[in-house]
Amino acid sequence: MDRIPILKMGQLLLVTIQVDMHDRLAMALQDDLTDRIVREQARGVLIDISTLDIVDSFIGRMISNTAAMARVLDAHTVLVGMQPAVAITLVELGLTLHGVQTALNVEKGVQLLQRQIA
Q1: One Pfam family name from the record (predicted)?
Q2: Which one has a higher pLDDT value, 74 or 21?
C-alpha cells in the first residue's frame, strides 16, 4: 500500500497530500501521523491539501478526527492550500472541521503553528 510522506521540520510535522485520497490511504495516514506525533514529540502538524480537487465526507471527517487526535497528543493542526471547490463541498456537506485551523499556504500555516507553540 502507498503511504503519504510525513516530514519533520523542527517541532512540526509536514504532510503534503499529492495523490488522490481514498479511504484506506486516509486511515493509513491517520495512523502514521499519530505515531509520528508521539515518536517525534511534535507540537504542530501542517497538512497541505493544495493538490486535492475533491474531498468527500469521509476524508473531511478523517481530517477532523486526525486534528482531534493530535490535540489529545498535545499538537496543533493547520490545514493549508484548500481549493475553493473543496471549501464549497465541505460547507455543502455540513462538515465544519472542528478544531482544524486553516491558512492559505504553507508559509502562513507554519507561521500560525509557530505562534501557537511558542
Answers
A1: STAS
A2: 74
Where do we find the cell 499519530?
A: 34
pLDDT of residue 97: 81
80, 52 in Cβ contact below 8 A? no
Give kind and range of the element (H or E) at residue 103.
strand 101-103
CATH number, domain at 36? 3.30.750.24
| Residue range of the domain that includes 76 | 6-117
Helix (H, G, I), strand (E, B) or coil at 17: coil
Tell me how far apart the alpha carbons of residues 112 and 114 are, in angstroms, rounded to a whole number: 6
Report the predicted TM-score, pTM, of the whole model to 2 decimal places: 0.91
Our count of domains for the chain comes to 1
Chain mean position to CA 27: 12
Residue with cell 490511504: 25
User: Distance between CA 71 and CA 75 in Å, rounded?
Assistant: 5
